[in-house]
Backbone:
């Protein structure tokens, strides 16, 4: 009956699933029949996503915690095995901004930004890879940003951490191919709480978000659903000859320069 759902009987961990792109990706994957372990900081919002998925007969578990903590990542993988007996892939999507110029940024915030944005991906891959190697077509999507290639005012920790993710994703693809496919997405300006928080680092915060959308070739901000569709494609078997690749999805922002 569900044969049209391409992620049926597959299990994924999605981090940052309580908000924005992670939430949209969780809803999309659930529609496609996936079984999900969802991670985020906000228990209430995470439970809301789970309730939404359950209301359409989908399957998901939310586990609140901090992705920069090694043991928390171990637990996410254990939960996938406990609940579903397998792990077919990851969407590493949790992220923070760590705003501040190099001279003003507290070293703690620099470390926290790398902890959440980069160390978390190393930790989750470390525990998840042995499980994913047991599966026939495991796939991972790492959410970086166009900030890996482009500067933004007062975003040094963010930009550096996102560049590190691009390199980590490619390295992981080389080490664990052909069994596990690993790709990286680099979104441009997307309408989520994070982009509004990012605006305060710009000289004119009120105009920053509006301009970010207008200054793309397609003259609008991306939606979380735009990102969920690319993430779904890269997780699914429709992309079975794609690995170690880096995709900008930015309404043409990088092309425009
Ligand atoms: N919004 C944009 O314009 C944009 C552009 C490019 C890339 N991104 C990236 O996309 C990803 C998703 O961001 P979003 O825009 O949907 O933002 P968002 O703020 O709506 O969501 C961020 C998610 O990360 C989770 N998170 C943050 N810190 C965490 C921690 N320590 N432990 C566990 N979870 C944590 C939050 O709970 C939340 O679910 C981020 O990695 C972000 O850097 C965003």
Residues:
């Amino acid at each position: 009956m569900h044969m049209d759902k391409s992620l049926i009987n597959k299990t994924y961990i999605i981090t940052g699933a309580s908000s924005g792109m992670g939430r949209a990706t969780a809803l999309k994957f659930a529609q496609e029949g996936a079984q999900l372990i969802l991670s985020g900081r906000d228990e209430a919002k995470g439970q809301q996503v789970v309730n939404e998925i359950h209301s359409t007969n989908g399957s998901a578990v939310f586990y609140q915690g901090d992705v920069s903590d090694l043991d928390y990542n171990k637990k996410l993988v254990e939960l996938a095995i406990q609940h579903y007996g397998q792990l077919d892939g990851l969407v590493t999507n949790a992220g923070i901004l760590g705003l501040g110029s190099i001279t003003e940024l507290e070293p703690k915030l620099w470390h926290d930004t790398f902890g959440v944005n980069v160390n978390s991906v190393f930790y989750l891959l470390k525990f998840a890879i042995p499980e994913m190697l047991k599966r026939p077509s495991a796939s991972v999507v790492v959410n970086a940003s166009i900030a890996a290639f482009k500067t933004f005012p007062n975003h040094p920790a963010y930009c550096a951490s996102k560049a590190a993710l691009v390199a980590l994703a490619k390295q992981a693809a080389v080490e664990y191919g052909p069994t596990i496919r690993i790709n990286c997405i680099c979104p441009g300006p997307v309408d989520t709480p994070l982009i509004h928080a990012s605006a305060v680092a710009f000289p004119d915060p009120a105009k920053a978000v509006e301009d970010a959308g207008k200054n793309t070739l397609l003259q609008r901000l991306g939606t979380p659903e735009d990102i969920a569709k690319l993430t779904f494609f890269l997780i699914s078997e429709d992309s079975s000859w794609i690995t170690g690749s880096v995709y900008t999805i930015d309404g043409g922002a990088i092309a425009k320069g």
Notes: The beta strands are 11-14, 35-40, 59-64, 89-92, 138-143, 180-187, 246-249. The pocket of nicotinamide-adenine-dinucleotide is lined by residues 15-22, 39-42, 66-68, 93-96, 116, 143, 145, 187, 189-190, 192-195 (CB under 6 Å).
